[in-house]
Design goal:
The complex is a heterodimer of chains A (68) and B (216). Chain A is built from 3 helices and 2 strands; from the N terminus they run αββαα. Chain A is mainly α. In chain A, a hairpin with a 3-residue loop joins strand 1 and strand 2. In chain A, helix 1 packs across helix 3 and helix 2 packs across helix 3. Chain A is globular, with a radius of gyration of 13 Å. Chain A starts with a helix and ends with a helix. Chain B has 216 residues and is of the alpha/beta class. Classes of the chains: A mainly alpha (68), B alpha/beta (216). Chains A and B meet through strand 1 and helix 3 of A and helix 1, strand 8 and helix 6 of B. Strand 1 of chain A pairs antiparallel with strand 8 of chain B, so a sheet runs across the interface.
């Protein structure tokens, strides 16, 4: 896992409000602290999150570039 | 053209399936309003034996599946297998299927089409949603969770209205895009997480098979 991607993912998760949970299929449902811990631990849930968030960032950037 | 019967599975054993279970009530109510016969495999009835039996005997034209999934499996109550690739995907022959499960459109979906499923709508990755953790016992009152009910329930509802598969999916895509626009413009505390889930679901939602197919 690339350290910068991990940091960016955790930075995004830090802004998640405490009263909501993210349901991620068979992984289960998690609050922000559980998600951040998974990223720090680099476990399968954490790896999944980093991949999905980075994909989201990349596709968002691509869409933004195409709009310009 | 398929027969006017719908089968729906809705296991209920964890927060994720609890939400899908409640969201499905709107689908069932709509089916009743349209005089569609409904076979509701809820809770423990969401098992392989009952699932296969109903499919073989009642031959529903539309199958709505809720629950967990993988690239090769769809799971029922207590995460027991309902359908597995290279095992029993042929039970979905001649059906239009909406699989509101994770990842099953990746490998299982195409295999279903090879085995005679008319159309398979699902997700190639994990289906994501956000919910208010204080509303788990009453998902219907969870405004955040209901965002995802709206953009997914529209698929079976649109099919029951007689729309083509591709039109039902387009309506879902349109709602997700409108929701993305709304939460991009209205920056609430929950917006970034909601937007992340909507954008990923939009990327992963896919149709295999006959996009021109119509239910009933």
């Amino acid at each position: 896992m690339i350290e910068d991607e991990k940091k960016l993912t955790i930075a995004r998760l830090e802004h998640m409000p405490a009263h909501i949970k993210l349901a991620i299929g068979s992984f289960g449902s998690f609050d922000k602290w559980e998600l951040m811990q998974a990223v720090k631990d680099e476990n399968p849930l954490g790896n999944f999150l980093v991949n999905e968030i980075m994909e989201d960032v990349r596709s968002f950037k691509k869409a933004d570039k195409n709009d310009k | 053209m398929t027969n006017n019967t719908m089968l729906i599975t809705r296991p209920n054993h964890d927060p994720e399936t609890c939400y899908l279970y409640r969201w499905s009530e709107d689908i069932i109510n709509f089916a009743h309003s349209k005089n569609v016969d409904v076979f509701d495999l809820s809770d423990k009835k969401s098992n392989r034996s009952d699932f296969e039996s109903y499919l073989n005997k009642r031959k529903p034209g539309l199958v709505i599946i809720n629950g967990h999934g993988t690239e090769t499996e769809i799971l029922g109550q207590d995460n027991k297998v309902l359908i597995k690739a290279d095992d029993n995907e042929d039970v979905l022959e001649s059906k239009i299927v909406y699989s509101r499960t994770c990842a099953s459109a990746k490998i299982l979906g195409p295999k279903c089409i090879d085995s005679g499923t008319i159309a398979f709508i699902g997700y190639t990755g994990n289906f994501l949603f956000v919910f208010n953790s204080s509303k788990v016992s009453n998902p219907e009152t969870d405004e955040i969770g209901n965002i995802f009910a709206k953009s997914t329930n529209i698929i079976p509802i649109s099919l029951m209205k007689g729309n083509k598969v591709e039109d039902a999916v387009s309506k879902s895509v349109q709602i997700m895009k409108e929701q993305i626009d709304y939460y991009s413009a209205n920056d609430t505390l929950e917006s970034p997480t909601i937007l992340f889930c909507l954008r990923r679901n939009l990327v992963h939602q896919i149709v295999h098979g006959d996009k021109q197919a119509i239910f009933n």
